[in-house]
Structure formats: structure tokens, C-alpha cells
């Protein structure tokens, strides 16, 4: 039973392992990210587009593209429907758990450390004791020294840091769609999803929104949920039969 679970999800889990092995050492590069550095428009646009492709503004577009690509690869059948059921359940679990874990861990975002260093707040934890208007004013004060390509994201996300919702979404897409593409020997498509996921993870570090541990925790969480997720193959078969039923009636 356990062996079959891992066989069915082997490709997705291997992709998540690769993602983890690349993200984990990124702590070596984070120290070189200067949040006070100047940012060109080209760089700002690139990182914003990447991060928003996994955020509230763009995740539905990304999801739609990946669903259409997978439909093109395997067609509309029981496997496709079962994957959609799996995807829907894990997305709900992932987004709900992200919100819950943030409130449990109460880990300040990295940019609050810069606010502390610039003497705008006494310590990172203090930022979360401010009301919405005070938080906005503090970030506006630092905006004289920090590129708006970064502070615009700070203004949009003033909640806690752990885990990374963007990385949870990217990991889910990598496991499900990347794994599916690997199973059907579409290695180029799987690589494309993998590179996108890595870029999403790095964009969160570059923006000052997360630390490497936030990303690592997100990947491990998705790996655990993905491993325990049932196949839904019988449900997919039942839906296919129901969809074909009217055709038989008309005949």
C-alpha cells in the first residue's frame, strides 16, 4: 500500500526534493541581498511578475495555464479528473494551513529587521503591534531609502512570514503538474515548471518577504500533504461515467 503510494507520486516527490535541495542553500545568497540597493525597472518588473504569478493577483492565471497544458498532454479522462480533485483538495489545505501557521508561528518578515536597523521601530515584533495605518506610515518612511519595487510588496503583505504562501502554491504546482509531465515524458514542460518554482522562491527572498527557512518549511509541508493525498481515481471514473450517461440516454 505504502509502496504503491510512493510509486504513483514518485515523480512529484522527486521534483519537490530537487526544489528543496536548490532552495535550502539559498541562505548563502540571502546575505548578499541588499534591500537598500537601487533596483532598475527591468529587474523590478521581472521580480514582480514572477512573484505575482504565484500570488493573489496571478495564481489563477498560472493555474489555468497549467491545467490547459496538462489537458493537452493527457486529454480529458479519468486521470485528468482525478488530478484535478487532488489539486483542489491540496490547494484548499495549503491556503488554509498557511493562514493558520502564520498566526501560530508569528515570525516577523525580514523587512521588519531593516525597519528596526533604521531605527523606525524598536524591534521586528513591534511592527505587528501597530495598527494598519501606522504600519503603512512606517513603510512609507523607509521608502525614501528602499526601491518602490520592494516597498509596494511590503505594503501589500504586512502579515507574518512563516510559511511562504507563494512557495506553497509553487510547490503544489511542481508536484502535481511537474510530476504529471514527468510521468508522460514531457521533460521540457516539467523543467519549465521547476525553473518557474525556483524563480518564485528566490523572488520572495529578493523582495525581503521571506527567509530560506520559510521556503523550506513550505516545501516540506506540501510534500507531506501530497504524499498522504488519496488518488481519487474512483471518483474520477464515477464522474466520467456520469458525464457519458446522457449520451447513452439520447441514443
Largest sheet: none
Instruction: Count the domains.
Output: 2
Distance from N terminus to C terminus (CA atoms, Å) equals 41 Å
| Element order: H for helix, E for strand | HHHHHHHHHHHHH
Share of helical residues: over 70%
Specify Rg, calculated over alpha carbons.
21 Å
Please tell me about this protein's structure:
This protein is an all-alpha fold and 251 residues long. The protein folds into two domains: 9-26 and 65-107 and 163-251, no CATH class; 108-159, no CATH class. Helix content is 73%, strand content 0%. It contains 13 helices and no strands. Helix 4 packs across helix 11 (187-206). It is elongated. Residues 245-251 have low confidence and may be disordered. It is an enzyme of class 3 (hydrolase).
Features:
single chain, 251 residues, mainly alpha, 2 domains, elongated, disordered C terminus, membrane, undecaprenyl-diphosphate phosphatase, transmembrane helix
Amino acid at each position: 500500500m505504502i509502496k504503491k503510494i510512493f510509486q504513483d507520486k514518485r515523480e512529484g516527490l522527486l521534483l519537490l526534493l530537487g526544489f528543496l535541495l536548490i532552495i535550502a542553500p539559498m541562505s548563502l545568497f540571502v546575505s548578499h541581498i541588499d534591500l537598500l540597493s537601487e533596483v532598475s525597472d527591468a529587474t523590478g518588473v521581472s521580480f514582480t511578475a514572477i512573484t505575482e504569478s504565484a500570488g493573489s493577483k496571478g495564481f489563477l492565471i498560472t493555474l489555468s495555464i497549467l491545467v490547459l497544458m496538462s489537458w493537452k498532454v493527457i486529454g480529458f479522462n479519468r486521470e485528468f479528473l482525478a488530478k484535478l480533485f487532488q489539486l483542489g483538495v491540496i490547494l484548499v489545505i495549503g491556503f488554509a494551513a498557511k493562514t493558520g501557521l502564520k498566526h501560530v508561528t508569528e515570525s516577523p518578515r525580514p523587512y521588519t529587521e531593516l525597519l528596526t536597523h533604521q531605527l523606525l521601530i524598536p524591534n521586528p515584533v513591534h511592527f505587528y503591534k501597530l495598527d494598519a495605518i501606522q504600519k503603512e506610515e512606517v513603510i512609507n518612511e523607509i521608502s525614501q531609502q528602499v526601491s518602490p519595487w520592494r516597498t509596494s510588496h511590503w505594503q501589500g503583505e504586512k502579515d507574518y512570514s512563516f510559511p511562504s504562501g507563494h512557495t506553497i502554491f509553487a510547490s503544489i504546482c511542481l508536484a502535481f503538474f511537474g510530476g504529471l509531465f514527468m510521468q508522460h515524458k514531457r521533460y521540457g514542460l516539467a523543467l519549465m515548471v521547476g525553473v518557474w518554482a525556483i524563480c518564485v522562491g528566490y523572488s520572495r527572498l529578493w523582495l525581503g518577504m521571506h527567509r530560506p527557512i520559510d521556503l523550506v518549511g513550505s516545501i516540506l509541508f506540501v510534500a507531506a500533504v501530497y504524499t498522504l493525498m488519496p488518488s481519487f481515481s474512483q471518483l474520477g471514473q464515477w464522474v466520467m461515467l456520469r458525464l457519458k450517461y446522457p449520451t447513452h440516454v439520447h441514443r
